[in-house]
Structures are given as structure tokens and as C-alpha cells.
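User: I'm curious whether this sequence folds into something compact or stays loose and floppy. Could you predict its structure so I can see for myself?
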Amino acid sequence: MNMEAFIKSLSQNTAPENIDILLNSLWFDAKGDWHKAHELINDLTGKDAAWLHAYLHRKEGDEGNAAYWYRRAGKAFSHQTLAEEWTDLTNAFLQTASS
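Assistant: Here's the prediction. I'll summarize afterward.
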């Protein structure tokens, strides 16, 4: 799947069947369901999950918690717009999925 197909899938009522949990979380976030997006990744480990977790807490407005997750991800606190970071996350995870 590429970014164009992922964006197009947002017009559907259900997430694409063959995407990993990180992309699934981003799909729900883009659909306005922060809680579902967070629920999907809340117990995941790894730097990618931590980055997504950081983004979600930044979106929530909890900068302290977001800073903790950025550190776990090995990343500096993001000062991008939320839309820019969502795009970066999605591109990174789509690239990983296609590897």
C-alpha cells in the first residue's frame, strides 16, 4: 500500500484488512477516533510504537507524557504540525510494511 491508497481508504467505514497495527492506529486517528488509535498501540513496545504513542499524546495535549514517549522512541520532541507528523509516521510505517 502507498500513501495515496492509505489516504483513499479513509473514505471507507473500516480500515484496510492487510495493514499492520501501527498503520491501523494511524487510520483510526485520522478518522477522529483517538481512543481507538491509542488502545491499539498502548501495550506495544519498540521505537516505532513509542513514536506513535508520543504523537498521540502530543495530539491529546499531554506534552509531558509525549516527551516521555519521544525519549523512548529516541526522537526529539516534535514541533511539526500534527498533520505533518501524521504524514511522516504514515510514510515511515508504509515504507517499513513494504520492505
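Summary: The chain has a mean pLDDT of 96. The CA atoms of residues 48 and 73 lie 7 Å apart.
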